Amino acid sequence: MPPETTAPPPGRRRFRKRFAAGTAVLCTAAFMWVNNTDVLAYHSAGERGVLAHRGLGQTFGHEGVGNDTCTAERIHEPEHDFLENTVRGMRAAFDAGADQVEFDVHMTADDRFAVFHDWELDCRTDLSGTTRDFTLAELKRADIGYGYTADGGGTYPFRGAGVGLMPSLDEVLAEFPEGDLLLHIKSDDPAEGGLLADRLSALPAERLAGLTVYGGDAPIAALRERLPELRVMSKDMMMDCLLAYEAVGWTGHVPSSCSGMQLHIPEGYGPWLWGWPARFTQRMAAADTRVVVVAGSGGFSEGFDDIGSLERVPDGFTGLVWTNRADETAAAIRDRSG
């Protein structure tokens, strides 16, 4: 007869179950730490880049800025004579060392694209209304430096100097045939995405590879449907990617919703992402996705605009750094590459 076996007492069984569960939790926690800590990550040097927001232009204080604030009326004392969203300002940004230059596009009355930031023309120019109220030819006669003042209206240092400086999208593409460009659709009109698709579809594949478009969910969806090979980003796309990554990123897996895009990550949100910054940027790069770190909450054009602010860019970050002052920061951004 087989020997009799005696079951362990209930207290010991409970201990074994708790020990097994605790060991599983500890092993999982250890795996998550090892798989996501930057302490053990490979920090590749020389890969941090510069994204020049609106090229090179005048900067302004962000305190109290809202959606209706006319930022041209609160610029800092000018240190240069470049204006945002101009060919000259974009050229200056590239010359200063920018890897990618961002600019804004709006539809015109004759279904062209003007390069200009504001929906309303009244703040910066000598015109009143929206870009859609005017033809491109009419907009090109506007003075885009008309409304800038650093002393509450005492002086207007760029008034008269901005006549004819509002470029078209076609002019920018012609001026920078090989430049890495980031186009911002300022509306949420799907028709604008369709019109932009009409324009960009005429470009060769190698030129499309150097363009990225971001903006409202509806126009970006329309654009992506027509040009699936184009790198695009919208708020919905970014949220789909990041929520999925938060769920599974601890394993090192990058969800398909994160592939082939450009992510703009506010500096305060980055530390909540698995593997931030080095492993995160490396994982996204492997999925053909660029990562951009933006200052503050990411709203109202905040950038890393002086040497001191670059201390907040984390070691090991190897994506693009958003700046409004490429002339002041580009060299330092590269010197501090992770």
From TrEMBL:
UniProt-listed SUPFAM superfamilies: PLC-like phosphodiesterases (SSF51695)
Top-rank taxon? Bacteria
Instruction: Using the record's annotation, list all stretches that form the GP-PDE domain.
Output: 48-333
Q: What lineage, starting at the top, does this entry show?
A: Bacteria, Bacillati, Actinomycetota, Actinomycetes, Streptosporangiales
Official protein name in the record: Glycerophosphodiester phosphodiesterase family protein
Native organism: Nocardiopsis mangrovi
Looking up Pfam families in the UniProt record yields: GDPD (PF03009)
